[in-house]
Amino acid sequence: MSSKMDVMWGPEEEQALLDSIDHWVEKSVAPIAREYDLADKYPDVLVEEMKELGLFGATISTEYGGLGLPARIYAKIVIKVSSVWMAPTGIFNSHLIMASAIERCGTEEQKRKYLPRMASGELRGALGLTEPNAGTDLQAIRTVARREGDHYVINGAKTWITNSMHGDMALLLVKTDPAAQPRHKGMSMFIAEKGDGFIVAKKMKKMGYRAIDTCELVFEDYKVPAENLLGGVEGRGFHNAVGGLELGRINVAARGAGIAEGALRLSVRYAQERRTFGKPICEHQAIQLKLGEMAARVEASKLLIESAANAYDRGERCDMEAGMAKYMATEAGAFCAEQGMRIFGGYSYSVEYEIERFYRDAMLMCIGEGTNEMQRIIIAKQLVARHKI
């Protein structure tokens, strides 16, 4: 598959696509970022333009109407958008993780029914994993699906679900056998379209990552057709969910690198504009030390992301590589955003300067898609497993 994608997306095609993303970011994303972020306003206009660009089908195979992008190109797109405004990447990323799960694990009927409409953006999806008592420990979920004839009845709650208010459906992780041991054998996933009993309880108010709908969901006797059980077989939900984590972590790594790059860009410009003691602050050694460290971390992050994405595109196991990229790039995002705040000094605390948004957005990347503490544990375990003595 990767060789076919590489032929389709040669250097010229890749550059043309990235140029179009650059143009879109400059023309449409940058002018509204501050206004929409501060107002916590959903960017409907960007969603329509994302459809035209094909972003909702970015990683969906061409067979189902998508662009069929390899991870290495998709990551570059995410970096470019996030370097100006990270939040819009969540609108298509959560959607694409759902699509990836359907393409990897779904029945042929499910693929034909959903993927073409997801690729066009007609249907937009979410990933329903997290619950109030279950984040990193997915096996602790309590949402239950009970079989009744030709459908299942779902009861429970989900939280921190991106795309759940403005999207059309979610891929829900539930317990179909709550008594199963080990616990993961009793878990299944369902393609859940909105309907009676699918309740968007409230939109979460967040420090950062604003303008995008992150909500609490409640399911009260929500009925979903049995044909919407992902893959058609119960008990595979946990593996279906964790199977998409590598691409998800590459994406979050790319967001972190984008935040880092954007913070660096703003800082380099401001350091040349701002003068103290008769000269631009970029000529002060204290500022130069910050800029140098920031630049090195940005480039190191990009190389780790490229390494993980290439391994993913080759079909290799890459949980260690994706974990390294996620850990280092998101920490780089947090570091560069903080250093940017210090470079901007007192002005960084004003919403008139966009560096404060990068600072607010950065910490989420260190927490989401598996905490960075968990990434280091994954890296260590894989390191030992790959170098047994």
3D structure, described in words:
The chain has helices spanning 2-8, 11-29, 33-39, 44-53, 71-82, 87-105, 108-120, 237-242, 245-273, 285-313, 319-344, 355-367, 372-386; strands at 125-128, 144-148, 151-162, 169-175, 187-193, 198-203, 214-225, 275-276, 279-280. It folds into 3 domains: 2-124, Butyryl-Coa Dehydrogenase, subunit A, domain 1, CATH 1.10.540.10; 126-234, Butyryl-CoA Dehydrogenase, subunit A, domain 2, CATH 2.40.110.10; 244-386, Butyryl-CoA Dehydrogenase, subunit A, domain 3 (Up-down Bundle). It is of the alpha+beta class. Helix 9 runs antiparallel to helix 10 (285-313) and helix 11 runs antiparallel to helix 13. The relative contact order is 0.11. A 4-stranded antiparallel β-sheet has the order 2-3-7-6, covered by helices on one side.
Sheet with the most strands: spatial strand order:
2-3-7-6
Quick one: biggest sheet? 4 strands, antiparallel
According to CATH, the homologous superfamily of the largest domain is: Butyryl-CoA Dehydrogenase, subunit A, domain 3
Secondary structure: helix percent: 40-55%
Q: Which sequence of SSEs, written as H and E, runs from N to C?
A: HHHHHHHEEEEEEEHHEEHHHH
- CATH level 3 topology of the largest domain: Butyryl-CoA Dehydrogenase, subunit A, domain 3
Q: Give the N-terminus to C-terminus distance in angstroms.
A: 35 Å
Low-confidence stretches: 1-7
Number of helices: 13
Shape: globular
Strand content: 5-15%
Mean pLDDT: 95
Number of strands: 9
> What count of structural domains?
3
Oligomerization status of the protein chains: single chain
CATH top level class name of the largest domain: Mainly Alpha
Radius of gyration: 21 Å
